[in-house]
Amino acid sequence: MTPPTIGVLALQGDVREHLAALRATGARARPVRRPGELAEVDGLVLPGGESTTMGKLAERFGMLQPLRDAVRAGLPAYGSCAGMILLADTVLDAPADQVTIGGLDVTVRRNAFGRQVDSFETAVQLAGVPGPPVHAVFIRAPWVEAAGPDVEVLGRVEGGPADGKIVAVRQGRLVATSFHPELTGDSRVHALFVELVREATAMRARDHASSAGAGADAGSEGRTA
Ligand code: GLN
């Protein structure tokens, strides 16, 4: 089966590391900066960086509405850190003019872990990721403060002051983590996303085939009627 093509939104952030992690899973990966490039990918990674800046750049590059439309239409997307914030339906501690993509029925709090723990690393056990816990790197990270009924919690912090906080979620074709798996050389989180993209692509192909079949049937009925 041809590997899926996954884009990495390349307005800001650690794009190269995500491209490398995606390629390590066997996917094709390319940067996405324009609506035309967005239209050509089977899935999209929204990297970490600064969500307010990324939102502004997306607007300036004419990408904000295409991104919102693509996610609404079912394009699989994985948001890491700032990318999680961009996908969240509700953002706390955001400036009033912050723009986002939305689609994920969660409330996230920006810079949630507090100033004393700006950045930290810990092991997080993730549902759907086989093997030992992933080494999670948090950099001025958000956490998920509330998640809607269709959101599956994939992982929480265990122990410490943030014990129990949700840091990885999935809702349908959307995945988000508070942390940065692209920085660790472990591509298991990317592999989980690539698998989801494969399934979504296969489903789309089946839908196309069956609607083409239905169309042909309707046509022949039309002729015989
Ligand atoms: N604090 C950043 C924001 O609010 C996210 C940090 C990151 O992506 N590493 O966008």
From TrEMBL:
One of its GO terms (biological process) is L-glutamine catabolic process. It holds the Pfam family SNO. InterPro entries: Class_I_gatase-like (IPR029062), PdxT/SNO (IPR002161), PdxT/SNO_CS (IPR021196). Residues 210-219 have a biased composition (Low complexity). It catalyses: L-glutamine + H2O = L-glutamate + NH4(+); aldehydo-D-ribose 5-phosphate + D-glyceraldehyde 3-phosphate + L-glutamine = pyridoxal 5'-phosphate + L-glutamate + phosphate + 3 H2O + H(+). This is Pyridoxal 5'-phosphate synthase subunit PdxT. Belongs to the glutaminase PdxT/SNO family. It comes from Modestobacter caceresii. Pathway: Cofactor biosynthesis; pyridoxal 5'-phosphate biosynthesis. L-glutamine binds at G49, E50, S51, R110, I139, R140. Residues 206-225 are annotated as: Disordered. Keywords: Glutamine amidotransferase, Hydrolase, Lyase, Pyridoxal phosphate, Transferase. One of its GO terms (cellular component) is cytosol. Its EC number is 4.3.3.6, 3.5.1.2. The active site is at C81 (nucleophile), H180 (charge relay system), E182 (charge relay system). The keyword Nucleotide-binding does not apply. Catalyzes the hydrolysis of glutamine to glutamate and ammonia as part of the biosynthesis of pyridoxal 5'-phosphate. The resulting ammonia molecule is channeled to the active site of PdxS. The keyword rRNA processing does not apply. GO terms for molecular function: glutaminase activity; pyridoxal 5'-phosphate synthase (glutamine hydrolysing) activity; transferase activity. PANTHER family: PYRIDOXAL 5'-PHOSPHATE SYNTHASE SUBUNIT SNO, PYRIDOXAL 5'-PHOSPHATE SYNTHASE SUBUNIT SNO1-RELATED. In the presence of PdxS, forms a dodecamer of heterodimers. Only shows activity in the heterodimer.
